[in-house]
Backbone:
């Protein structure tokens, strides 16, 4: 992200963005490799192809703020790998981490990983260290530390159904697991900030927040997310594109100031539920409109969103959730044309 883009983002986060909202998309391995014309495995294993895919995106769409920008990642395998999860990498499908916790009692045997040495995390940092001169020569800087959230990581280690059941059957063990994961994630974010002094933002992604009720969120989500966001950075960005009605009212209390929601609520509803204390990144339908729609349908969706939003001061125009697979260049250009028309 360039200095200009970063300053534009910070303005809109504090509600000083004016009536012309910026355009931003979360982009990573579900979209970039195939859009660039390579397999997902090549994107993960070739530093040069990974860099060139990101470079092509920022140069083809200079009007767009890509978040977090040059995201070094291995899909959903990133954090579970540090706990010893077996990671499966098909050639051109999304990678996945196999469960490591087969029974609740096994939580007692887990040790907190070291983000500097364990799993795929050192490879993520080393890639960014290696490309940093090239990235900065393009006028960009590393702005965000990034991780999945505690609930999300827990479901990869245990399985979604098994972990959600454990919240009810073994709450003490669930808390023990979340406590361990949160401690690890705090150190992982700290290591990213220490490695790259340009980092002044934190991005946490946790869709599992949207799968639990309000009371469970207050017990099992709120305290751990609060710890992760208790850092002195300008941008505190959260992604949950599942349901958010039971949790969004607590996001400002957590410290979140930028939120990427799903398609379940209008911008007006999201603002009402959060008392308009969040800057929102959204939220035209990602799959059915941005990926599968025609350019005319994309333009119509963006125009409708803008027409329904009188106060555009705390808005980053985007899709609901991250950029999905299959979004074409022509549809992104149609989005930009509608946003700037």
Residues:
């Amino acid at each position: 992200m360039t200095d200009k883009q970063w300053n534009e983002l910070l303005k809109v986060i504090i509600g000083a963005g004016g009536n012309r909202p910026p355009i931003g998309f979360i982009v990573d391995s579900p979209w970039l490799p195939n859009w660039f014309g390579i397999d997902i495995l090549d994107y993960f294993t070739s530093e040069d192809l990974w860099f060139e895919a990101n470079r092509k995106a920022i140069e083809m769409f200079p009007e767009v703020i890509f978040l977090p920008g040059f995201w070094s990642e291995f899909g959903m395998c990133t954090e579970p790998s540090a706990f010893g999860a077996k990671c499966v990498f098909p050639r051109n499908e999304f990678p996945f981490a196999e469960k490591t916790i087969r029974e609740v009692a096994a939580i007692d045997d887990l040790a907190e990983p070291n983000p500097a040495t364990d799993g795929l995390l050192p490879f993520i940092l080393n890639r960014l260290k290696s490309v940093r001169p090239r990235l900065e020569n393009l006028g960009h800087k590393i702005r965000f530390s990034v991780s999945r959230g505690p609930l999300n990581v827990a479901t990869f280690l245990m399985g979604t159904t098994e972990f959600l059941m454990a919240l009810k059957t073994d709450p003490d063990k669930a808390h023990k697991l979340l406590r361990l994961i949160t401690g690890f994630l705090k150190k992982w974010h700290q290591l990213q900030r220490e490695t790259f002094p340009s980092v002044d933002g934190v991005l946490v992604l946790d869709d599992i927040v949207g799968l639990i009720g309000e009371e469970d969120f207050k017990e099992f989500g709120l305290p751990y997310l609060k710890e992760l966001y208790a850092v002195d950075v300008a941008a505190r960005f959260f992604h949950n594109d599942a349901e958010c009605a039971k949790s969004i009212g607590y996001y400002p209390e957590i410290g979140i100031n930028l939120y990427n929601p799903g398609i379940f609520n209008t911008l007006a509803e999201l603002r009402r539920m959060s008392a308009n204390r969040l800057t929102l990144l959204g939220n035209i339908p990602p799959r059915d409109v941005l990926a599968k729609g025609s350019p005319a349908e994309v333009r119509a969706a963006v125009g409708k969103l803008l027409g329904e939003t009188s106060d555009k001061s705390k808005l980053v125009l985007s899709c609901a959730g991250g950029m999905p697979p299959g979004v074409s260049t022509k549809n992104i250009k149609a989005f930009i044309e509608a946003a700037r028309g």
In short: The mean pLDDT is 97.
